[in-house]
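Contributing new records

If you add data, match the layout below exactly. Sequence lines come first and carry their own label; structure lines follow with theirs. Keep one chain per record. Anything else will be rejected by the validation script.
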Amino acid sequence: MAKNSRAYTFKEPTSDEQLAAMRAVVRESARNEPGVYRMIAENGEIVYVGKSKQIRSRLMSYFRAAYPEDKGARILRDATRIEWDYEPSEFAALLRELRLIKQYRPRFNVAMKRDARHYSFIKISRGAAPKLNVVRGAGPDDAAVYYGPFVGAQRVSEAVRELNDVLGLRDCRSDMPIYFADQRELFQLGRTPGCIRHEIRKCLGPCVGGCTVAEYDHQLALARAFLDGSDAGPADTLRRQMEAASNALEFERAAIFRDKLSRLEALREQFDRLRFAVESLSFVYNVEGFDGRDRTYVIRRGIVRAELDSPKTRRDKAAMRRLVDDIFGEKPTTGSSIPTHEVDELLLLSSWFRKFPQEMQRASRVA
């Protein structure tokens, strides 16, 4: 076991005597330093992974569970061994916890145990009258445009529906025949809209010649600008409609527009958070560690690409400089999406620097 690790095994976690013995070992052996811990079942299954700025205090809290149904009590009932490792800082512990959860997928870790299936993307289809589709992932060879990733497919789908309604974009089946108003035809035929949305003025009607190519493309560009964060037009439209209904004392109608606006703003907020990480989190991050164990993290596009003990000597600094040059010398990933396997770490780093903005002072931008 690692130098900064400790483990304790007990046979019957429901036994008061065994729990008392376990508590005594933690009280006497664990130190209040940053670290991660693992609760392990008799068959070797890691049932829970956690982290804390103060390992001893956190582990002791498990033995103070007031009710049998408390999560801490349930974890102890399943565990026969506990292990912990000390980390140099809270940031190191947070990063280590995430990686262990992704590696072992403990059944008691719910909040962070996500995989690609929990993320969705907004895909702009190709061909005539492109539409916005909510999909689970981006194909590696797909030339379509993707926005995301987003958490919560249902909420994203609701927001996309509002975006379609505001801008008049179609949401019909992908193989629906398209006939633009400026499309020349040998015979002019009367056509019936593929759905009711055109009749109630929520779709431009590219299936029945209700708009020109340029008119549809203009509305699609507004959708992309909204997702890019460069134009809040769709949200502004809903806000004006909400205010107009309120001024007319049509409060139920105003509430409908308020809910539509809320769904759009939630989508935009989530995308803004991801874009912040991708665009802003590229630097060398120096973290002061417990007992002088300082660490340096090379972060690019919101992902830790390398981590090492902070260099002390001239030789170590030169080696780190070469490492940084290699990482930032690579051609950056292009496009609107990021690999789904990197999403959790990107979200973690984004949350960390938003919660502790002063930590950005420890970051050194790479020229």
